[in-house]
Design brief:
alpha+beta; extended; 5-stranded mixed barrel; single chain
């Protein structure tokens, strides 16, 4: 990954918004990826600014210098999530925290009627936290899962 990135003006968020999921191209590798990032024209507005060329015009031959700060990188995430999804097919889906405290608290939430089961409580709480803290992971996984589940070649090979 280089330290120079490119995006098209059409991918920029509406005026006033500084954080967005942005389609970006790595200037060195030419890889296109999506990442949650903050952008600004002034590097002083960001904690860890990196150069971002914003191209515009009918042939995208005009560029403005902006700056980008990655909030939650998605580069490489898709490949890793695909590998993990493949591996998960052969593994148990039980997640064990090995925590008496957590088990007591989850059971309390079930007994007080807030959740139907400890697994439902754990799933909902974890997904809520993931959505708040790591939204790009959930977004990328949703894409991977959709692609993986609808891949006829993979399905045909799995049937053999």
């Amino acid at each position: 990954m280089s330290s120079q990135y490119i995006t098209a003006e059409e991918h920029l968020p509406d005026a006033g918004e500084t954080e967005t999921v942005l389609q970006i191209r790595d200037a060195e590798t030419k890889e296109i990826f999506h990442s949650r990032a903050r952008i600004a024209r002034d590097p002083a507005q960001l904690e860890q600014p990196e150069p971002l060329s914003v191209v515009k015009g009918p042939h995208e031959n005009t560029a403005e210098q902006w700056y980008i700060e990655f909030v939650d990188e998605t580069q490489g995430m898709e490949d890793r999530l695909e590998r993990l999804a493949d591996e998960q097919r052969d593994r148990s889906n039980v997640v064990n925290t090995r925590s008496n405290d957590l088990n007591v608290l989850l059971r309390y939430l079930v007994e007080t009627g807030r959740y139907e089961s400890t697994s439902a409580a754990a799933r909902e709480l974890l997904f809520e936290r993931l959505a708040d803290e790591h939204p790009s992971v959930l977004e990328t996984y949703a894409e991977v899962k959709t692609e993986y589940e609808s891949d006829p070649l993979r399905e045909a090979l799995a049937d053999e």
